[in-house]
Specification:
The chain is α+β, with helices and mostly antiparallel strands. Helix content is 21%, strand content 44%. The radius of gyration is 15 Å and the shape is globular.
Length: 163
């Protein structure tokens, strides 16, 4: 069973405190999710993540079919890091680490490390290659466009890790 990782870095033209305020507010998820995914938060959310916070939403990643996704915030180290994990949703495993590092001139490096296992066992590898990986890339590309590229260091790394 392959375990995949996607790593994405982006430099944004926001200071660390402002960047943290934006990313740690779960209500902003909709602003950085492509509209074609029909992302809908199902419950009222607080203005900042905290360990144990459950975020329930629907998303339509394939053929417009809505899926319920429940994410738990499992770790927070403000203003440098937080981690969310899927509790209910389409993946066998979804672990998303968000890192924030202050840079000179009021900029921040935003780094995401997503570790995931697609559904459907053996067929999940083909599904990952054909649909999941390209869609994840498009989601991060959309986020980059929404936030504006504050530098030329944006890059994506996708790799499979053998278990």
């Amino acid at each position: 069973m392959p375990i995949y990782q996607l790593e994405r870095k982006q430099i944004v033209s926001l200071g660390l405190a402002e960047c943290w305020r934006f990313f740690s507010d779960p209500r902003n998820l909709r602003k950085i999710t492509p509209p074609e995914l029909n992302f809908r938060i199902k419950r009222e959310l607080p203005p900042e993540v905290y360990p144990g916070l459950m975020i329930e939403y629907t998303v339509s990643p394939l053929l417009g079919i809505p899926l319920t996704w429940l994410t738990e915030i499992v770790h927070v180290e403000a203003p440098h890091r937080f981690v969310d994990e899927q509790r209910v949703g389409p993946y066998r495993l979804w672990h998303h680490e968000h890192f924030f590092r202050a840079l000179p001139q009021g900029r921040t490096e935003v780094r995401d490390l997503v570790t995931y296992v697609p559904p459907f066992g053996f067929f999940g590898a083909a599904l990952n290659r054909l649909s999941i990986r390209p869609q994840l890339e498009r989601i991060f590309d959309y986020r980059e466009a929404q936030l504006g590229a504050g530098g030329s260091e944006t890059r994506t790394t996708l790799r499979a890790v053998d278990v």
